[in-house]
Amino acid sequence: MSIFLKVLSVLGIILLVILAIALIILLIVLFVPIRYRAHVLYDAEHLEAEGGGSWILKLIRVLASYKKGEGLSYSVKVAFLQILPKKEKKKEEEYEPAHVIEIGEDEDEEPEEAEAEAETRPEPAPEAESGPSEEPVTEPEKEEQKPEPAEEPAPEPPRESRTGSDEPSEEDELGLVLRLIRDVSMKAMDIEDAVDAFFDKIEEKYSETSKKVRVLLVKKDLIVEFLTAEGTMSGIELTLKRLFRILGRYLPELSGKVRYGTGDPYSLGGQLMYVSLFYSIYSDAVEITPEWDEKVLEADVGADGKIRLCHVAGLALAVLFGPKCRKLRKNFKRLRKRLKAVDTKVNHKKNRKDQDNG
Question: What is this structure's pTM?
Answer without folding.
Answer: 0.53
